[in-house]
């Protein structure tokens, strides 16, 4: 990595106001909150704390823009051209955005610059290209009539996005929502608002009309709830915890029955059979999948289900491969794991580690806070063994660098344990038996099943969960459908 990101820090100018109707503006109340870097616990800037009055302003702007039709009814090819320009502008500012992401959220600069920002650019480009390639339909009916099936933009979309992949998760929402012709209001997580506030002005520079793209920083109980309850918001697209996702279902039911799309929690099983092959390779990939992004990925394979005949050997290998993930300075290009997002999250994760010990599980690696002298929020990669699937650490989403290992005897027990969870976002399966792979993949209750890997998805594949992992799908052309109303027009000839 050739860029000296540390030298760029003094050149940064933080966008810290809301973005409504094409302009950065303060919160109506004048309130702000501290944006703190988990790298060292220092305040980066103070950000506008939006509430219901700001939500009203943003929704009014979004609705006016939608009804005006300069975006919602323009030719799809024009939307494509504008979104491609938007992606190009993000690419032009990629180093600035990567640095903002790392300072704001604590992930290694190599991940921000090498994964998150390029992934966001690709997402917007992909949906830009899809804008003029999603066709309407004519249904088969009688020869004396025509039945048209058309897609129309749903209207005003509110996207409430998480802190673990701040710009990437926002792009998964804004890409298809804008490509379909909607107006959008994004509420970033209060822990990580800086990159989405920066690209808001890039959207305007690209030619996205005023009011079509709005950003409201603030807290869930104020700005988030106000969006969820607003009578003129047509859809909520949310990524975050299962608990908060249920709030949005309630808000929708108590307001205007707005459409709700949820990508919520996960506790993904990672099933390893004795015939998996090179166990050292399997253990390395499994450890990489858990500890990437400090374990703050909803589909991380945090629940290893390992066949009892290889349990001790495999857990030892995972513990060995956990060591290279020891937290270090996120601004060092060689760092693999940085901080967790803030000290509150650090205390939450450490609380789960304590709970695991009290329940009788054994710590095979890690288990402690590190780099305390920095003032940041850092936790060792932690491996638990001798875990029962009923334990708290095996059932609840920890969202940190912690993995648990549970033993099983045969296929039936592996599937039972894998499905013994309120979640169903992703499942992983390691075996050289092709028949077993197909058979068990059908039995696993998860939106994504990955065989002989833990990584297996790109923008072309739908992503979402079964059970309490959510409703609806992000990514792929399937995401376009949820941002559209489907209309049937019947014409008697």
List keywords for this structure.
single chain; 493 residues; Aldehyde Dehydrogenase, Chain A, domain 2; 7-stranded mixed sheet; 6-stranded mixed sheet
How does this model look, in words?
This protein is α/β, with parallel strands linked by helices and 493 residues long. It is 39% helix and 21% strand. It has 16 helices and 24 strands. The protein has helices spanning 5-8, 52-68, 76-92, 94-105, 109-130, 166-179, 194-206, 220-229, 242-254, 279-291, 311-322, 343-359, 392-395, 411-419, 434-443, 478-482; strands at residues 18-20, 23-25, 32-36, 43-48, 137-139, 145-153, 156-160, 183-187, 213-215, 235-239, 259-263, 269-272, 303-307, 362-365, 369-370, 378-379, 382-385, 402-408, 423-424, 426-430, 448-451, 466-467, 470-471, 484-492. Helix 2 runs parallel beside helix 8 (220-229), helix 4 crosses helix 5 and helix 5 packs parallel to helix 6 (166-179). It starts with a helix and ends with a strand.
């Amino acid at each position: 990595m050739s860029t000296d990101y540390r030298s760029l820090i003094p050149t940064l100018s933080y966008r810290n106001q809301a973005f409504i109707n094409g302009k950065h503006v303060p919160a109506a109340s004048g309130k702000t909150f501290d944006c703190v870097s988990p790298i060292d616990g220092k305040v980066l800037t103070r950000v506008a704390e939006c509430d219901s009055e700001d939500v009203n302003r943003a929704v009014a702007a979004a609705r006016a823009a939608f009804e005006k039709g300069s975006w919602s009814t323009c030719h799809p090819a024009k939307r494509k051209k504008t979104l491609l320009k938007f992606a190009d502008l993000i690419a032009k500012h990629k180093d600035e955005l990567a640095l903002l992401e790392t300072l704001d959220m604590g992930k290694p600069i190599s991940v921000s610059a090498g994964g998150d920002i390029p992934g966001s650019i690709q997402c917007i480009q992909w949906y830009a290209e899809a804008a003029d390639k999603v066709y309407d339909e004519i249904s088969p009916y009688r020869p004396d009539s025509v039945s048209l099936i058309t897609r129309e933009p749903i209207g005003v979309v509110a996207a409430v996005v998480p802190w673990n992949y701040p710009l990437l998760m926002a792009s998964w929402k804004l890409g298809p929502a804008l490509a379909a012709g909607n107006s959008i209001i994004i509420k970033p997580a209060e822990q990580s608002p800086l990159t989405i506030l920066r690209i808001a002005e890039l959207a305007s520079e690209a030619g996205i009309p005023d009011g079509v793209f709005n950003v409201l920083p603030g807290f869930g109980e104020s700005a988030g709830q106000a969006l969820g309850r607003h009578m003129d918001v047509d859809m909520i697209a949310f990524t975050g915890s299962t608990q908060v996702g249920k709030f949005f279902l309630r808000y929708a039911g108590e307001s205007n029955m707005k459409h709700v799309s949820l990508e919520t929690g996960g506790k993904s099983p990672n099933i390893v059979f004795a015939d998996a092959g090179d166990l050292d390779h399997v253990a390395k990939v499994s450890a990489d999948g858990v500890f990437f992004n400090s374990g703050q990925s909803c589909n991380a394979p945090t629940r290893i289900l390992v066949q009892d005949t290889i349990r001790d050997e495999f857990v030892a290998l995972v513990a060995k491969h956990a060591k290279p993930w020891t937290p270090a300075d996120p601004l060092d290009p060689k760092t693999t794991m940085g901080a967790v997002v803030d000290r509150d999250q650090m205390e939450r994760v450490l609380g789960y580690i304590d709970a695991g010990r009290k329940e009788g599980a054994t710590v095979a690696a890690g288990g402690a806070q590190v780099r305390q002298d920095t003032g940041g929020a850092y936790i060792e990669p932690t491996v638990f063994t001798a875990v029962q699937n009923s334990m708290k650490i095996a059932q609840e989403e920890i969202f940190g660098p912690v993995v648990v290992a549970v033993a099983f005897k045969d296929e039936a027990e592996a599937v039972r344990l894998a499905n013994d969870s309120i979640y169903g976002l992703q499942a992983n399966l390691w075996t050289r038996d092709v028949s077993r792979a197909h058979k068990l993949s059908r039995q696993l209750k998860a939106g994504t099943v990955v065989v002989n890997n833990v990584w297996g998805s790109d923008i072309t594949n739908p992503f979402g969960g079964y059970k309490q992992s959510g409703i609806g799908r992000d990514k792929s052309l399937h995401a376009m459908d949820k941002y559209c109303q489907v209309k049937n027009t019947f014409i008697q000839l």
